[in-house]
Each structure stands twice: as structure tokens, then as C-alpha cells.
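The instructor's notes for this session suggest beginning with a concrete chain rather than abstract definitions. Hand out the sequence below and ask the class to guess, before any prediction is shown, which regions might be ordered.
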Amino acid sequence: MNMEQQILQPNAQDVNLDCSLSGYNYELPPGRIAQNPAVPRDSSKLLVVNSPETAKTIPPLNHIFRDLPELLKPGDLLVMNNTKVIPARLYGYKSTGGSVEVLLLEERRHNCWLALVKPGKRFKVGNEIIFTDGEDGKKQELRAVVVESDPETGGRLLQFDLPAEVPLVQVLGKFGQIPLPPYITASTAADEQYQTVYAQEEGAIAAPTAGLHFTPELLEKLRNCGINQAFITLHVGVGTFRPVEVEDVTTHAMHEEWIEVPADTVKQIRATQAAGGRIIAVGTTAVRALEGAAQFGDLQPFVGKTNLFIYPGYEWRVVEGLITNFHLPRSSLLMLVSALIGRQRLLDLYQEAIASEYRFYSFGDAMVILPEGKSIKL
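After discussion, reveal the predicted structure:
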């Protein structure tokens, strides 16, 4: 029997594994890690997670992403993350000599950024880094000074030498590069292929990858089918890629990420719920923003940081369905999706996807968890 045709009462061992890091391992053949995105974007494979009854007529496999309008319902609301990836990787040299690689993480104050620096162990307060662009045969310089160390990340706070009226993001295009995740080692993708077509708010160092599958034409088709769209902003940080390192996942200290859930989006969500529509998050970042904004009560407009950690046993407040990619073993993202449909059920689906040659991670294929496909508490 296909595992999508059954939902079992979890036993004590299952519950224990839900809270154990070892319960979130799986083996992925290296060839299944996507190095380039699908072209066109909406031609990627789509695994459909449905109810046991519906799975008999709509099996999980053999779909593509552009089938989405037929899988959702009129009145549903897609909530998307409109963050935009910045050219956060910079290469420079110390004023005393020696090459340096910098990955910007977040702005702590005006033109002062937390960054990972390589080599970083001997990089002390007062050290200066010089970056050059070399455009048009004329080398322009950008300088930064280490003003503080950050024990939590092992990073450094870099104060960039710019006029007060010039934000760093305004000049990064000349000096920086779009950073791809470390598991993408042989990509020929253009920078714009690592941005969603609706990217708008600059600040992320990684793309909200579930949104990479949408094309303008697909978004229009969804609107024409009565499937509406709303936006939040979550600037994806390096914590997204860092594995959980404690065996008891309930003791994991989740990284913070900056989010904005605007009043217009809250209004759309309330109207959708009142009319009987469903809230479908596009990506785990949209999940974290919505649930983070509703963490202490009803969903309200919110601007600030969240360290919400979602794993099995979480009580959902806003999100009813999810569009997501396939995630790294032992990651907080794998735990978040497990909270929606069950850990073992998710791992079984991953095995089906591997056997069916789905492509994994940022440039890989997608999964849609329909509201009727959520775990049923028995």
C-alpha cells in the first residue's frame, strides 16, 4: 500500500524520533542535487501531498509545477515572500596584504553589517578590508573596518566607508556577487534565475526557493482562476542552511530572521478565511513569517525579528497548506515540514521522490501540501 493511502496513529518510538536529530536523516545520491534551475521555471516536477482518499485519484507523482491552478481552489490565497537576494559575497584583501572573502549576513546599523569573513580567526577589531570592482578598466574601491566580533555567529561587524546618504546595498552591485548555497558547485545559472519573479525588497542572502518556480504567466493564470496572492517579507539568512546540531531538537536555539507582515496581507488573510478560502504559504519562509506574526495571539501586522522554531507537535495558527522544495537532512526546514504532515510520512515521500528522480534543494523540484493533506490527529 502506498504510504499516501494511510495515516497511522504514531507510537511512542515515532514521537521520540520526532524530537531526535537522528530522526531527520536520509540518504540523497549526489546526482539528485540540482545544479541549475528548470527552464522554464514552471516546468519543474511537483509532488502532491493529498488526503488518503483524494490520493487515489490524484497520486503524488507525475505532476509539473504549472499544474498548480488545477490543484488549488478558487478563493485560496497564496502568501509569498517578496525578499530580494543581494550581492552579498565580496572578495577583497586586507590593507596589510592577503586575500579575504566576505559573506554579508545582515545590517546591524547604518552601513555596518554582520559578516562571515574568511580567513577569520585572526581578523581583529581595527583590521581594514579593501574591495575593488574593476569596471571599465577603472578600479573603484570600497573599504570596510572591523569594529566588533560576534561570538554567536563567529562573524565580524564591518563598518563600510560610505557617505551617510549612500546605503551599502546601493553600491553592492559593483563589488559583490549573488551567493549560491554551498551545495551548488557547478551552476551556469544567471543571477536573475536565483531571484523570484516578484522579488522586490532587498536584504536576503539566499532566495526563498519555493517561489523560484513561478512565472508571470502562471501567476496570471492563478489570478484568473480566482486564486489570490499576498506578500510578506523575510530576509533569508545564513541560519537557513546551518544544520541543527543538538540531538534533542527541542533544545535547539533557532536563529532570528527579520520579517514584515503588512496590514494589507493580514486583511487579505482575514477576508480569505471569512469566505472559506485556504491560506497556502509559498515556502517555509512565508510559514515562519505568518506563524511568527501570530505567535502570541491572533495574526496582526508585524515588523521585527522572529526566532520561532517549528517542529512536530506545533499548533498551527494561520497556515493550512504549503508549497516547498526538498530540504537538507537534519535541517530546521525539514522539521518544519514534518510538523505539517508528519516526520515519517515526509521521509517516505522523499524516498518516493528520490526513486522518481526528483531534483533536490534550491534549484530542485517542488512539493505542494494541500490543506486536506495535512496530518490528521487521531
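Then share the key points. The chain has a mean pLDDT of 91. DSSP finds eight helices and 18 strands in the chain.
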